[in-house]
UniProtKB/TrEMBL annotation:
Residues 29-48 bind DNA. The keyword Transcription applies. Gene3D superfamilies: Homeodomain-like (1.10.10.60), Tetracycline Repressor, domain 2 (1.10.357.10). This is TetR family transcriptional regulator. Transmembrane segments: none annotated. It holds the Pfam family TetR_N. Residues 6-66 form the HTH tetR-type domain. GO terms for molecular function: DNA binding. It comes from the Bacteria. Keywords: DNA-binding, Transcription, Transcription regulation.
């Protein structure tokens, strides 16, 4: 007869997400996971597969909790540009104040793993595609509502913001001058004034 799990896999996955986010994939050993999660190594393997599979599930969990919030913020009825400007401020605020400097798990994964891990790269690209599509939709709505000029290219503007947002997150990881992020945010805001 199979034993029932003596732990909540959902809670364990959340703790794994937090550890990977704090330390990164490479710096988190299986021993670290076992200690932090409070379950046996065999239970980690039986429930999640290996470290890599656990990391990918943790990254998926992160995306499930962050991406929909962005889409919701950008798809509210009414004028679209105030939501875009609020998102610019949100990215700048998060990049400038995160302590310890955990950054964004998607950006951290892109920097650490995406060049050599196709599964991690797929999840990173999926998140960036989602952000770009959400921004494109909002900016298309803004153009249709005459908040942007008729010749504005919503997709190109969305891609510009995607790059600015990810750059803010990279700079936010380092002990860089916060003024750089604020200046970039002000310039991005000026595009949508």
């Amino acid at each position: 007869m199979a034993r029932t799990k003596e732990f909540d896999p959902d809670a364990v996955l959340q703790r794994a997400l937090e550890l990977f986010w704090e330390r990164g994939y490479e710096a988190t050993s299986m021993a670290d996971l076992v200690e932090h999660l409070g379950i046996a190594r065999a239970s980690v393997y039986a429930t999640f597969g290996g470290k890599h599979e656990l990391f990918l599930r943790a990254l998926e969990r992160y995306l499930e909790t962050t991406d929909p919030k962005i889409a919701e913020a950008l798809s509210q009825p009414g004028p679209a540009l105030p939501a875009v400007r609020a998102l610019i401020d949100r990215y700048a605020d998060e990049a400038g104040r995160e302590r310890p400097r955990l950054g964004c798990l998607v950006v951290n994964t892109a920097v650490e793993l995406a060049a050599r891990d196709t599964e991690a790269a797929r999840l990173v690209e999926s998140s960036w595609n989602f952000l770009e599509a959400s921004l494109t939709s909002a900016l298309t709505r803004a153009r249709a509502q005459a908040e942007l000029p008729p010749d504005a290219d919503p997709r190109a503007l969305a891609r510009l913001l995607l790059v600015i947002f990810q750059g803010m997150r990279v700079l936010g990881r380092a002990p860089a001058e916060e003024g750089r992020i604020r200046d970039a945010a002000r310039q991005a805001q000026a595009l949508f004034a």
